[in-house]
Amino acid sequence: MTIHEVIGNEGxxxxxxxxxxxxxxxxxxxxxxxxxxxxxxxxxxxLAGELGLAQSTVSAHMACLRDCGLVEGRAQGRSVYYSxxxxxxxxxxxxxxxxxxxxxxxxxxxxxxxxxxxxAGLTKMELTKENTR
Length: 133
What we know:
By secondary structure, the protein is mostly helical. Helix content is about 45%, strand content about 10%. The chain contains 6 helices and 3 strands.
C-alpha cells in the first residue's frame, strides 16, 4: 500500500511503515551518515572519525539503518564497508530539501520538533484521540 492509497478515518493506521521510515531518518546523526554514504561506502571507524563520534555510537546508528533496510554491509577482510541499499533514498532527501526551501524552513520553528523544542511531539495516544474526533 502506498501513502496515496490511504483513505478514510482509519487509514492513518496503514501509515506505520512510512512513519517507521521517517523515524529512522529523524536523528541528525543517522541523517548525516546517510548523506555521507551517498558519496560511497565507508567503514564505521572512518565514519566515526569524520563525524567526531564514538565508534560505538556510530555502530548503534548504523545498526538502526541496517535493520530498516536502508544500508548494507560488505565484508572485506576484518572490515565491513557500509553503503546505501537504495538510491531512491537520496531522491527522497533531495525532495525534502526542496520542501524545506519552499516552506522557508518553517519546520525549524516547529514547537514540537524544531530548534529549541523538547522533541516530545504528539504521542500515539494523542494522535488516536485526534483522529477519532
